[in-house]
Amino acid sequence: MKDLTYHINNYAYTIKLGEDPDNVLEDALTKFLRPEDRNLSIEDLLLAYLNKTQEFITFQEKLKTIMMTIPSKEHYENKGLFDV
Predict the structure, then answer these.
(1) pLDDT, tens digit (0-9, with 9 covering 90-100), for 29-53
(2) Would residue 83 count as lying in a domain?
């Protein structure tokens, strides 16, 4: 079990990551905010939030594009592939 401690406005905040064998959660949390960098400000937190939001919006757009290329269930039903 790993902990991350962020210092924000001269206060320490520790996050217990729990089971994270591949460091997926840790990597996501430290992508825009590194706990060892410095004492973080509210502006740093806001910037990290905006960066993460932009990353999520880009992911959603890519996912929508991919989903539009996948034929619907009706497409296969019309070809008789779902007949039982």
Answers:
(1) 888 888 777 899 999 999 999 999 9
(2) no
